[in-house]
Amino acid sequence: MAGLLLLSVACGGPAPDAPLEQVTVPRGASIRAISDSLVAHRVLEHPRWFRTLARLRGADRKAQAGIYELRQGERVSAILKILVEGRGKLVRFTVPEGETLLGVAEQAERQLDIAADSFLAATRDTARLRAAGAEGPSYEGWLHPETYLVPLTIVPEDLVDLMVRETVALWTPERDARRDTMGLTRVEVLTLASIVEGEALVDDERPVIAGVYLNRLRLRMALQADPTVQYGMELLTGARKTRLLTKDYKFESPYNTYLHPGLPPGPINSPGTASIDAVLNPASVPYLFFVAGPDRRHVFSRTYREHLTAIRRVREGVLPPPEIN
User: In the prediction, which pLDDT does 210 show?
Assistant: First the structure.
């Protein structure tokens, strides 16, 4: 009788629409602890038979630690196979704010063993981009920087779609209403937010930097944002130049905001939510210039003359730089 029950439990299966549950198996967890967790998530109904079959198959010593995505009511034999092989394991994939499309591809290769070329190939299908509710000619700016839990076997197309959906989900009615009031498209907001992301090193300066750039756009001044020059060079060379030389500011690229007025053609990286909200809710400031100062902060100025003074004092190591009101 027990054998028949064991066979029925092992051969059953979840309903086609059974919910998925994320179950964590800690390193060194006992088979009893694993079964208790599976029961708590309603993946497992018969923990006794699960533990019995695990011991019979030696799976109690082979279950891999990790985070698994399992259906409620899954077959015992299927659960054990997944745990032993690690097939259903979810892994963390982290994309930092300000990462470019090329950078995200490198992260996918490093963290998920997805070839960077395969990832980039998936981002060339702009029809998929539009189908996900995004806008613009490129995936740049639409790959939301975040820590994701993804299947170990995820394919590039699914990973790209997941990241785009996260960015699309940011556009709540409130954010869209604010954007519309400012007369900006979603792509324009993401573009300016990506520049703010490239400049800001502390959170409380994001709205101020956004305010500076909006002031310059309003006055039809060139943005003169270093990150746009760096991005244009990265597109050509495939490498990021962290420090610009004087000659680099003449580098011909449609993204070079020293040479071309207004916003660049599109985002230059993946801006985080804080930078997007900074653009939508900029600080009301009189500044038109800023220069990097000490302690990861910037010195803001109203006039070019004040700006030159701030640059000189920062270079001379005068601490703190003068407060310019």
Answer: 98
